[in-house]
Amino acid sequence: MTEKLAILWPEIFLFIATCLVMITGQWPSRAIRAFTPWICAVALFAAFGAAMSSPGSGSAHGGMFPEIVPYAKMLIAAVGMLILLLLSGTVDRELEAEVDAGKPFSSIRSNRGEFYAFFMFSLTGLMLTASADDLIWLFLALELTSLPTYIMVAISTERKKSLEAAVKYFFLGALGAAIFLYGFALIYGATGSTNLSEIATVFATQTANGGISSLGMIGLLIAIIGIAFKIAAVPMHFYTPDVYQGAASPVAAMLAFVPKTAGFLALMFILGTVGWNDGTAGGGHLPVAIEATLWIMAALTMTVGNILALLQTSVKRILAYSSIAHSGYMLVGLIAGPGIIGGPFYQNGLAAVLFYLLTYGIMTVGVFAVLASLEHRNGDEADDMDDIRGLCKSHPVLGWTLVICTLSMLGFPPLLGFLGKVGLFTSGIAAGQYALIVILGINSAIAACYYLRLVAAAYIDDKGKVSSPVYASPFATRKIAGVVSAFFVLFLLVFAQPMINGAYNASKYVPAVAGEVEHNDHTDRHTQSSPAKADEDVALTHKALID
Amino acid sequence: MMTASILSSFTSFVSPAMVSDASGDHGGNASAHLANMVEHVGIGPKWVLLIVFLPLLGFVLNAIYAATSNKTKLPAWTTIALLAASFIATLAMFLSYEGTPYTVHAFDWFNLHYGDKSFVANFSFYVDKLTILWMLFVTGLATLIALYASEYMSHDIGAGYCRFFAAFGLFVFSMSCLVMGDNMLMLYLGWEGVGLCSYLLIGYFYKKPSAVAAAKKAFIVNRIGDLGLALGIYLTFVHFGTIQYAELFANETLHNYINAAAVGDFSGIPGEAQWIALLLMIGAFGKSAQFPLYVWLPDAMEGPTPVSALIHAATMVTAGVYLIARFYPVFLISENALPIVAWIGTITAFLAATIGMAQFDIKRIMAYSTVSQLGYMFAALGMLSTTGAAFHVLTHAFFKALLFLACGAVMHGFAGQLDLRKLSGVAWMKGWGIVGVTMLIGCMNLAGLPYITSGFYSKDMILAEAFITPGYRLIGWILVITAIMTAYYTFRVFFRVFLGEQHAEPGEDFHGDDKSDFHPHAPGWAVNTVLITLATCSMLAISLAYIDKAEHHGWVGSMVAESTASFHSPYAGAVYAAHGGGELHAVAGPVGHAAPGTVLGMDAHKGMILVSGLGAIFGVFVAAYFHGPKGWQGLFVGGRTEAGKCRMDAVAKRMGPIPRMAENKWYVDEFYAMVLVTPLRVIAHVFHWIDKLLLDGLVNLVGFLPRVFAWIIRPSQSGVLQGYAVSMVGGLAILLFVVLVVVMRAGGVA
Amino acid sequence: MMHAFETLQLAQLAFPAEMNNSVLAPYLFVSAAMFCIGLIGFMTRKNMIIMFLCTELMFQAAGLSLIAFGRHHLGSDGQTFVIFVLTVAAAEAAMALALVVLLFRHRESLSASAWKELNG
User: Fold this and answer.
1) Using CB atoms, which residue from A217, A218, A236 is nearest to B728?
2) How many residue pairs from chains A and B have C-beta atoms closer than 8 A?
3) Do A221 and B736 count as a contact with CB atoms less than 8 A apart?
4) Nearest to A541 among C24, C66, C99 (CB)
């Protein structure tokens, strides 16, 4: 238990902060209310530090991804800080204005406490996902990541569209959760354990004895497709554009990063249980059915995301579709897998995904920060393409941030996004997924159409026919978040080495070895049964059911 | 005989056929000296980083000044102080150097390890005596020239002033990275960095179309060279598996190649390894303005004069020499690289001198003389004399900077006047004495007047080397003739502009109504101080030739000897031995083994002192006769009485179109325009039309298709919750069906 | 299929021996049926409260599977999992009700199809 505690310090810090902000957010004194984000910031710093010194992972889970925890949590804390900068002023703006005008503070109407608490809860859930070594833990962590975001979407603006976004997000999210929970139940049924390492051992044994049982395989597929909701991959992507458009830009930025990261970490763990070996010693392929599923998902996700983005006029919808497309890119890395054990970075798809999550988090925060920093006179957020027209002239800092981050999302060579994409490309090639790489290449070209449209709109000034001009919103931290992101996008290429090394180390994967599972911690077991035998039985049962 | 020697030097200067007896005893440890050099590369003290990062701080501070619209001389003083500090740190580095090279690590840049391979290129610095030699004059001259520029640029105080000194700081930083980097990627970073700064500074007067065009030209021509360099680095990594100096020069394969090359056996060295040197050489030709890539340098004079002095005369253009010197072991293993370097250098030296003789713009004359002198340095490199090249780099840095700065003072004082036909007797005008005297010292050095100038010693070393190294006698004679031409065109400037009747017409920057109202504006204390310092340095550099003379051919030789640019006698010995038997005897008659080369029957060094010394004096007298004023100022042979007229005019008329062709630079630019630029333009137009008609149509179609698909699937985003749920569940069902039924049936395995 | 029902017996009867497949099958069948009913209900009903109940049905279907598998493997993991699933379901219920009330205030309707302004 104590070893497990050692990796949980970041979560503990975040949880303490969560409890604190729930109180300070409702405090009648304005100064203490204003202190709320600072508590979050301190906790994130502490979590970052704790993650830096944390051991690789808990004892039991150490078998599969022994080094993932420090990198994943540092990534989460770092991007979390950027998002925190963005969140300022999202809720309670009118309320605070009234308080300034002399009205008494009404804690009933204030949302600040909940808002920041939910944000911290969500990040806690995300970090717990990274620490997960068990299906139960994984399920709870994923739900802890998602549940707060539903409410955050609902309260993020005072407009009806936020409610619409929330209702769609919540109901479809619950549907997705139910689907992957069912998948988890089947996996448990097929293996007799909820511990990921033990599951991996059982699957390895089954593979050695002729293949994973069909119950387990169906469980895996259902779980993967259910988790696809988190990463907004086809066919679970439909909610994305509506939710991003309905939510306030800062919250949309968070949605682009937090659930996606959780989903990819969960997918890594789930796929880790079956491994990328499929019989061949050098490694390279997932089991056929899973690879086919992911392949179809990846190809469709990229394509659907990119082509639907072509038709949009709302910048947030474009970003939502591009978020879908980016998930498709990252799925290529998951398909490619870790490559040969000890192989170079560029052949390691998992390292590429882990690095791309960081890259994507930074770029997307940068773009959303620009949108969040602009508003109409009536308080509406900037969203339409017209709103960013000529931005480089009217608001140079925001304009160039937009241009830089957008070009990076496109994968323009000297920028960070390029470096991220190269890893995905090369790992896909190393894994022999040539068709998928061609699709990836074509999609990058299609994506250029709408990204360049954004760049052109910001850079080329044809203002004049704009009916409702935009103004800089009064929250400097949002602008800072954008500038910091743009700075990272520009200069992380030079200093990317530690990040690449981190991602590379974190992606260390130890395949399970076929053999007996040791159930040390299951004292209530009355008779020892061979899991392999149990699986055969279950498989037979299932067949009987299907027949 | 001569032809045979040229040919042999061109094709293989150590031809296997000539190797008869020089085998085992030399070959085994030809690389031993290099191995010693890199055997114990230590870790250096961290303060060495100051040398590099202080100039960068200057850049940052100047950028801040620019942002805060500073309107004082603060940028100049900041830059001077930081560069001086950098110079002092360099001196400290020199004085504390203990004989073994070391590296200093700033931070990790690329540090990739995979399996048993790695790609390491960190932001760290490699210090040996070659580094120190280069850094001494780079930081020293940069400090002096920044001081000069503080006055020279004062009419631009404000944004332009900040911009100038910001680029200045960035240039010194880049140059330091280039010279001090401990790997080829750092070198490339610095290489591109100095190129960028050069571009920025040539285009400093960006409102002047010619300046913009010159900046563009410099950048584009340099890109050709940069491509060579980049490919060379790539090939080095591919072949040797590292681009870090310490590892590269300790590489066992490289040593085996050197040992093989030392006995003239190139057959065992793969072509890939030999190509490295050729590619690096192209990079060096671009940056150091060698034929055929020299065309950008004269145009680069559009930049402010301090820039011409620092970047385009003293430091940046010697980067090519540094590159070859640093990678000399790599050049030694290439059969053809060094002979090509020698010949290209010679051709450049001669060609540029012919153009220089016919120019009227004094800054351009200096530019062509720079190209010409760089040619000497390359010739020296090609003739196995890294010492000669480095020594000439050093003396040239001093006297050419001095000449440029003196010309700049004239240009500044006479409202941009640079035409030597419109100026006369400047040295006698009030306040111009110091400029006159220092200019004379500079001219004497460039002309190479015997014994009293440092330029003489360094040039003499190169010329002597041409006669010592077998197969290069023709080069030697061409370079001697070039030296006479150099003396002529140098003193042509001096006699016409600085001596004689006082006469001055203002240049294009003069905005008064009446040209007779014009009063030259004499240089201030900063300019004079810098000129005097540089003149003193040029003269003091003579002493360098006598330090350590017996063992290393002077102080510079002792510096070069302790770096990767040196190779010890086994190699040279093998070369001499290989050639000694055949050619030297045939060309120069019987010689003993102690004196492998002779000039006019004398020892090469002594003979050269005579030949080149007399040649230089002869050149000066020719200049005096054709351009010198009447009386003692024209050495009693001159006959010029007016500013614009001289004896040369009549001679030039009789020579037909030749002077005009030389003045127009032998139409090389026009030739390039005709052969390269125009056809490229035509091709570009053709492709443009193909593009427009064919590809655009195709692209539009390709761009159109995704939109069509988008229109088709857009209804799936209906916005209705149930619709989404149905689509999701349907997608799930279809996916499971496809995978479980279709794929698994087809694949046959789970 | 019928075979499974013929041998139907209570799961606890054979305790502590393993629950055999024929006993397990009906539990899985019921669970799968519940899940599908939930899915279909979610897709066809427009009332948001009913839709939410359908997701609850799906959660509990998974829970039933987990308990049955837990009994099958004679481990406590399944039961443990179910406790947590119930907790999460309760949390979701709380959120769902709050959200539905909020939505009802705005539109005076419980129909999910009232919310379709964001599309495309």
Assistant:
1) A236
2) 114
3) yes
4) C24
Touching subunits of B (3+ CB pairs, under 8 Å) are A, C
Domain count, chain C: 1
Taking the whole predicted model, whether its pTM rises above 0.80 is answered as: no
Q: Please give the helix or strand (H or E) that residue C33 lies within, else none.
A: helix C21-44
Mean pLDDT, all residues of chain B: 82
C9 found inside a domain: no
Strands B42-43 and B102-114: parallel
CA distances from C23 to A542, C12, C16, C77 (A): 12, 10, 14, 19
Q: Are the Cβ atoms of B707 and A306 closer than 8 angstroms?
A: no
* Domain contains C68: yes
From A102's Cα to the closest Cα of chain C, the distance in A is 28
ipTM: 0.90
pLDDT tens digits, residue range B599-638?
A: 666 677 777 788 888 888 999 988 888 888 888 887 778 7
Nearest to B622 by CA among B488, B503, B521, B512: B488
Mean pLDDT score, A175-203:
93
> Hey, how many other C-beta atoms are within 10 angstroms of the C-beta on A89?
18
Residue of A nearest to C40 (CA): A175
Alpha-carbon span A276 to A297, nearest angstrom = 18
- Give per-residue pLDDT as tens, C64-91: 999 999 988 888 889 999 999 999 999 9
3-state SS of A72-109?
HHHHHHHHHHHHHHHHCCCCCHHHHHHHHCCCCCCCCC
- Chain C residue with the nearest C-alpha to that of A529: C73
Chain B residues whose C-beta sits inside 8 Å of any chain C C-beta: 714, 717-722, 725-726, 729
From the list B401, B376, B402, B398, the residue with the least C-alpha distance to B389 is B376
Contacts B744 to A, Cβ<8 Å: 288-289
∠ Cα A176 A178 A181 (to 5°): 110
Q: Sketch the domain layout of chain B as residue ranges.
A: 34-251+261-335, 664-711, 717-750
User: Which residues of chain A neighbour B703 with C-beta distances below 8 Å?
Assistant: 449
Token pair in block for residue B178: 């280039």
A464 CB neighbour count, 10 Å cutoff:
7
Taking an 8 Å cut-off on Cβ atoms, the answer to whether C65 and A182 are in contact is yes
* Interatomic CA distance for residues C99 and C106, integer angstroms: 11
Residue C112 sits at the chain B interface (C-beta within 8 Å) = yes
Question: A446 to chain B: which residues are within 8 Å by CB?
Answer: 706
Lowest average pLDDT, out of B469-483, B512-526, B618-632, C61-75, goes to: B512-526
How far, in whole angstroms, is CA B297 from its chain's centroid?
10
Alpha carbon of C10: minimum distance to chain A alpha carbons (Å): 17
First-to-final CA distance of chain C = 45
CB A357 within 8 A of CB A499: no
Instruction: Tell me whether residue C101 is in a domain.
Output: yes
d(CA A499, CA A507): 12
Q: Distance (Å) from the C-alpha of residue C28 to the closest C-alpha of chain A?
A: 8
CA distances to B182, B344, B500, B614 from B291, rounded to whole Å, are 29, 6, 36, 28
C4 within some domain: no
Return the structure tokens found at B479: 């370079």
Residue range of the domain that includes C81: 48-109
Q: Specify whether the CB–CB gap between B285 and B344 falls below 8 A.
A: yes
For residue A136, give how far its alpha carbon lies from the nearest alpha carbon of chain C (Å).
Answer: 6
Cβ contact B194:B80 at 8 Å: no
- Number of inter-chain CB pairs under 8 A, A vs C: 167
Domain ranges, ordered by start, for chain A: 2-93+109-513+530-546
Tokens for A290?
């899973």
Query: Would you state the pLDDT for residue B30?
Result: 63
Contacting residues of B for C44, CB less than 8 Å apart: 722
CB contact under 8 A, B739 and A221: yes
